[in-house]
Amino acid sequence: MTAAAHPALDELIATVALLRAPGGCPWDAEQTHASLVQYLVEECWELIDAIESGDRAEMIEELGDVLYQVLFHADLAAHTPGEDFDLEDVARHMTAKMVVRHPHVFGDREAETAEDVVGFWDELKADEKPHRTSVLDGVPMGMPALALAAKVLTKAEKAGVAPSPRTDGPRVTLSGAPSPSDSFPADEAELGEALLRLVAEARDRGLDAERALRGAVRGFSAEVRAAEASAQTEPR
Fold first, then answer.
1. Would residue 93 count as lying in a domain?
2. Among 27, 33, 50, 161, which residue has the least CB neighbours within 10 Å?
3. Residue 133: its pLDDT value, please?
4. Where are the annotated segments for Disordered (predicted)?
């Protein structure tokens, strides 16, 4: 099979190398993996904005910005003593990973649904990372609070753990309005408005909604790990 030519990609790779080489850009030459983290995060959020807005021209630009970050890190590693990897190593590792995690495409296993595929991934990741003892291991705790909460809840569900319903204390209200259980938002638009009002009320009361949710997620994460530990010590 003849390899496809990617002249534009090759040109971008060469551009990154030129900017970072002696005589290139002084700013580029001073960067480290750590110093670039803020830009990677910003570029990813800008790409998300472009995707959600449906602006394809913006998507091209923002995908390019994210790609540039990958190329920059790879070139940096290739020229940093002790790191000893480059873009080819990154690509080779990713290809091998995708082949292993898609046995229904590259092997003899069968998958009829997306759920089957997710099951394969969970099994294979467990085999690849036997040092992980909790479903929460590997979850990046630096994620924004809402995304982190959703991720932790999804992982916890696989361990058979769910948040305990609160039976004490006042119910949550939005601008003084009661919140009966049967008035949960009907769709994402209503949910977004409800969340926005809740954040606004928290702000008016001097509360930090992001910090509050992260604290709740940390508490629930501790419950998940405790439940896992208890299950491992129970007689079988």
1. no
2. 27
3. 74
4. 159-188
Supply the CATH number for residue 31's domain: 1.10.287.1080
Write the DSSP string, 109-165: ----SHHHHHHHHHHHHHHH-TT--STTTT--TTS-HHHHHHHHHHHHHHTT--PPP
Structure letter (DSSP) for residue 174: B
| 86: its two tokens | 């480059």
Among candidate residues 57, 85, 113, the one where a domain is terminated: 85
CB 31 within 8 A of CB 23: no
For residue 221, the enclosing domain spans 145-161+181-233
The per-residue pLDDT for 33 is: 96
Pick from 96, 103, 80: which is nearest to 31 by CA?
80
Tell me which residues of the chain have a pLDDT lower than 70: 1-3, 126-128, 165-182, 234-236
CA distance linking residue 146 with residue 178, whole number of Å:
23
Name the residue type at position 197: R
Q: How far is residue 9's CA from residue 50's CA, in Å, rounded to a whole number? A: 21
pLDDT, position 166: 58
CA dihedral 169, 152, 184, 186 (to 10 degrees): 170
Other CB atoms within 10 A of residue 171 CB:
9
Task: Using alpha carbons, select from 107, 78, 62, 60 the residue that is nearest to residue 17.
Answer: 78
Q: How far apart are CA 146 and CA 140, in angstroms?
A: 13
Token pair, residue 197, equals 């009002």
Q: Reduce the DSSP state of residue 177 to 3 states and report it.
A: strand
